[in-house]
Predict the 3D structure of the following.
Amino acid sequence: MEKKEFKAESRRLLDMMINSIYTHKEIFLREVISNASDAIDKLYFKSLTDTSVGMNKDDFVINICADKQARTLTVSDNGIGMSAQELEDNLGTIANSGSLAFKSDNELGEDVDIIGQFGVGFYSTFMVAKEVTVVTKAYGSDKAYRWVSDGVDGYTIEECEKDSVGTDVIIALKDDTDDEKYSEYLESFRIQSLIKKYSDYIRFPIKMDVEHPKYVEGKDEPDIEIENETLNSMTPIWKKNKSELTDEDYNRFYIDKFSDYTPPLCHIHSKTEGTATYDALLYIPARAPFDYYSKDYEKGLQLYSSGVMIMDKCSDLLPDHFSFVKGLVDSEDLSLNISREMLQHDRQLKIIAKNIEKSIKNELTRMLKNDREKYEKFFDAFGLQFKFGIYQSYGTAADAVKDLLLFQSSFDPDKKVTLAEYVSRMKEGQDCIYYCCGESRAKIEMLPVIEKIRDKGYEVLYFTQDIDEFSMKVLMMYDGKPFRSVNDGAIDLDTEEEKEEAKKTAEENKDMFEFMKQSLDGKVFEVRISNKLKSHPVCLSSVGQVSIEMEKVLNAMPQNEDNKVSAEKSLELNASHPIFARLRELYDTDKDKLAAYTKLLYSQALLIEGLTVENPVEFADLICDLMV
Ligand code: ADP
């Protein structure tokens, strides 16, 4: 029989996982049982709408069988099963759902993190198995197949016999070593405790033959009685009372259910009655999944109708700005065979979604208030999504998230600030919220325009993410205060006296500025006296809708290749800088030189803003002229 190889990435991951020292090996059982339960869920759901399935809820069961002689542990389910193609697709590649977009090899250092990012459930069996056999028959098919693999070389698939629909996963345990006793997974007490720990909530019975020693008088050795027992309580965690549950219980359920190996930052468990009756269990993850900021990421909550899962990712339950939330909603108000299209218009679902949005917002607001450190951790992972949310919703998401935003600011290098904090500290007479765009705090603080505004005692928000300025333009204002870039041509920092003075200087130099503008050949809208500069000679400012930062961001996008945008720029000069006096002098004595200096100053200003010089050769030549 031909042996097929695992896909290259799968092998790499397999290797990592099998040799991972971080992961608790015992979780393999949880993974296999989860899969069995999902498979049963699928067939059960079908049986509710299609009588030809011929099964009742009570017929579904997961059986565990430990064979000490053969050293095998078998988990069987009578769920939906897999066709040959599905076997190939589901078990031939790891993380079938998303490509293994490893960013770089050195990121592979942290085994546990990488494993956590993929739904690698089934493959965890190879942490304890030397060989895994999957025998399965899909619902509606009369053929069964056997998949066998040692997890290293590849796998085989062949047709085989199986009476009933469903799947057996047969795990042949590795040999015991001094450090690892794999045979422990054949002991009933160990299996029982693992099921209690990880799979208690599974809604279908998990059954096993359990050995009970019975001491009989007059006999030294007890008789062994075997009883077929159900090992799990079958009550879903969200149906239990909060008081019965510990954080540990909640976290375990999360890790099991939502393929994230890092415990969540917090959970929200609510039971609601009234206009809509439902239970919700929501989690805020601690880390963004690897594909979170890509179009592959699918938001949504699991949707149950009276305990039966009807949809895995119901996107209508979560607004985009809270798309990172994981969890489930169980409502008796929803009909079992409701379609996706019908759901979208369902009034109950809309009410539930509104409530859920509110409770997520409240929880985050509480966290921001009471546990700033935790909130900042959260914001580092998902804050970007709030800004996308505001931008993409044209501002309708703003009310939900504007108070949850954090920015770096000039106020304190070690602390991020909320907009409310910024506004509460605004100086008397300050009528807008100042911001400055740049790659990083360090780069922003080097910008000439920052110096004076900070000197005047104004706090400046540092917009270090591309989306920042775009989304704040959509938001327009906070608490009635408009956002204003420190690069904005219309910014007004001076006192009345200074303004008077500047007006005078501008008037006196009108002709020179016009000459300078001409020598820049239409590249700037005007040359003017700056009110933003303290010790630097020049800067650029922009007028109109497109700022200099937006020009950079938009032009960096690949689709804008033939369609470059350009901010309308002013070249601003510092009238108290010695360079200014020199320009004045040249205007009267050597206009050619003034034209050359103007180009130099303009190029410098471009470089300071992080833009490229349009003609680098000319720029270099001009500098050389100065040097010789
Ligand atoms: P995940 O469960 O996260 O999707 P797994 O690697 O655990 O990842 O499983 C891969 C896929 O194999 C599952 O999504 C499912 O389609 C299929 N599968 C695994 N176990 C079973 C089973 N017992 N019955 C039917 N299908 C299964």
